[in-house]
Amino acid sequence: MPSENHHYAKILLTDNLPVDDSVSGNEIQLIVRRPSKMEKSALVEFALEFTKHMRVSQGWNTVHVVVEPMTFQELPPLGKPAHTEADQSTWIIK
Fold it and tell me: 33-65, pLDDT tens digit by residue?
């Protein structure tokens, strides 16, 4: 469950190169929660590893990553995390 006393980050991964004429790009959005502030480089590294199987199966050619901090009030409805490890929870947002 989301908590006001945690730090949140939205990570947007995009592949803007078309695979064929019908595909204009792909996008994966993650929200990561931790009790302590997160370093951008660590979030990027985690997001790339966590989404690697999804990106490979979708035939991504490139990866562009944007990391933005979020407040508790900005969170969309999250539901159950897609991944939980130690003190970090991760949601995939469609």
Answer: 999 998 999 999 999 999 999 999 988 988 999
Is residue 37 within 8 A of residue 7, CB to CB? The reply is yes
- Full domain range(s) for residue 45: 7-93
Q: Could you identify the residue written with the tokens 């980050």?
A: 9
Residues 50, 89: contact at Cβ < 8 Å? no
Contact 15, 25 (CB under 8 A): yes
State the pTM of this model.
0.85
Domain count, the chain: 1
pLDDT in tens, 3-22: 678 999 999 999 976 555 55
Q: Which of 92, 57, 64 is nearest to 78 (CA)?
A: 92
Is there a domain that residue 30 lies in?
Answer: yes
Residue 65 lies in a domain: yes
